[in-house]
């Protein structure tokens, strides 16, 4: 495809040879003649010297005499737009497989793709252009929006609501029982989980993630939030819009998370606290109390990022401090020995 068309798709400005034809896309290290690649992180700018791609999507301030460049405000986003426009396979409309099981009293939209061995329960409503891959289970009285993609072996339990343009990857479970028990005389009595889950528009949920239904009310995932693989979200959690939840995060029950929050990999959060808008928690942070708006936290227990950095710097010097303490101990012992030899009459 002509490089000029790619520049338009990337919403960038073309610098270099306007006659180039792009045949494929590749990483900056692997790219060869005919390929398009991108550079978004300035610390890797030296890779341009050995880059063999025919064109590179870069930031506004990048210069290179020998490469054709497409300059954009956000190279990563520009590259994503190009991939969507030219390289993503268009969705097929396959209709409803004869090997799918669909109970009565369902409402099914138009242009659906329902693969074999899908189950859709009684009373469920499905919007237009939605895809159910093999092995998908959707329980009764669910609401599934339009342009939704449910990848193989996704499980949607009863009464769950899923908005438009939601993507749920293989093996995710939405609406399983919350982990609630009342203990009496060393016996754990299960508390019925009578609530549900609401997934708002434009959410993406990774493979193997589990989102528990509420005890009462709803567990809520806000519009545009993106959740990675293997995340556990407990009952009655509420996550706002546009948040990023990275792999292996564990969120205990009844946590409230604001808008545009970022939780790094393996973050753990205790129950019944508030994480306000714009908070960032770095990987493996253990959050044990509410975090105010815009704060960045790290470590366990989670603390302000700058404080954590100072603490880590101190710990890194631990061996040095131990050697210093040993030296001081030797000096004190030497002084005490000399004083004891002089005796009190020489004091």
From TrEMBL:
Coiled-coil residues: none
GO cellular component, as recorded: membrane
One MF annotation (Gene Ontology) recorded for this entry: N-acyltransferase activity
Top EC class for this record: transferase
Gene3D superfamilies noted in UniProt: Hexapeptide repeat proteins, MurE/MurF, N-terminal domain
Catalytic activity line of the entry: a UDP-3-O-[(3R)-3-hydroxyacyl]-alpha-D-glucosamine + a (3R)-hydroxyacyl-[ACP] = a UDP-2-N,3-O-bis[(3R)-3-hydroxyacyl]-alpha-D-glucosamine + holo-[ACP] + H(+)
Entry EC number(s): 2.3.1.191
Family: Belongs to the transferase hexapeptide repeat family. LpxD subfamily.
Protein name: UDP-3-O-acylglucosamine N-acyltransferase
Classification lineage: Bacteria, Candidatus Schekmaniibacteriota
Encoding gene, per UniProt annotation: lpxD
